[in-house]
Amino acid sequence: MPIPLTADPVAVAQRVRELAREFGFQRCGIAGIELGEDEAHLRDWLAQGLYGSMDWMARHGDLRARPQELHPGTVRVVSVGLDYGRDSDEAWDTLDDGERAYVARYALGRDYHKLMRQRLQRLADRIAEEVGPFGHRVFVDSAPVLERALARNAGLGWIGKHTCLIDKDGGSFFFLGEIYVDLPLPVDPPASAHCGTCRRCIDICPTQAIVAPYRLDARRCISYLTIEHEGAIPEELRAPIGNRIFGCDDCQLICPWNKFAQRTDEPDFRTRNDLDKATLAQLFAWSEAEFLQRTEGSAIRRSGYERWLRNIAVALGNAPSTPEVIAALRSRRESASPLVREHIEWALHRHGSF
Which residues form the 4Fe-4S ferredoxin-type domain (predicted)? Predict the structure, then answer.
């Protein structure tokens, strides 16, 4: 039976959580819109220039912490989480094999943005069917939203020292999405932090991008360097990148809370194109047409073909000096763009091949 808006707000909130589960989200909570402390933290981070070339972070800084300004009428945020986790042992095996390519676990399958947005919109539509029309807007990385702070306040998890959200029962390998609503629902208690004195994520970071607990320097982060950064990768950071060609998971893989986390298999997030097994040489051989065809519907499209080759050239420079690795680098030496060629020359020099 439909639950009218005049019903007990507690009952409406409980029904929202039930529907979120029915639509495939493993976690759901409701948060208020007060983010004063988080806004101050964000302003300080931006003032230190730790966002690199992501100018959009600075342009919409304050708006991120003010849901009521981003979508007028908003009084609550429904925050949801969708698992994408895999076996961590497989990830470590790939990282230990210098000839294989490492792709961040979230990017091995289908791009989550469209999947989550469609599912969230269907959830919002279903809520409207049950409680009546209400003002809302759905977000999945589609606007300036402080999603981790909102998710923490909604009880989905705490923000770890690596700045990712951690659920003590589900680890950190899950995506976040939000529905801004004008329904005055009761809010959930925020999650408490459980990092304690642990600093494994800080110590393992290959480029030491976690400059202090809860403080990430994006300019040193491998995820930023391989996905967002458009120019040459700073030479001093190339060797630490290892075989990571799109993103990095080390800080999450090492987190004790992920070791025993329960995984939910989402078919759309299953690996495509054998990206969990492919060698660097195999991926470096992709033509642009092949890259576009194979990455259709994938988050990897975000890097673009030139950055894809740039990243693999760096990884090949860090790979064992095998005939296949040297041949792969030489195969593009003359035809590559100036950006890619710079990284190929660096890689060949690493192998003593000029």
Answer: 183-215
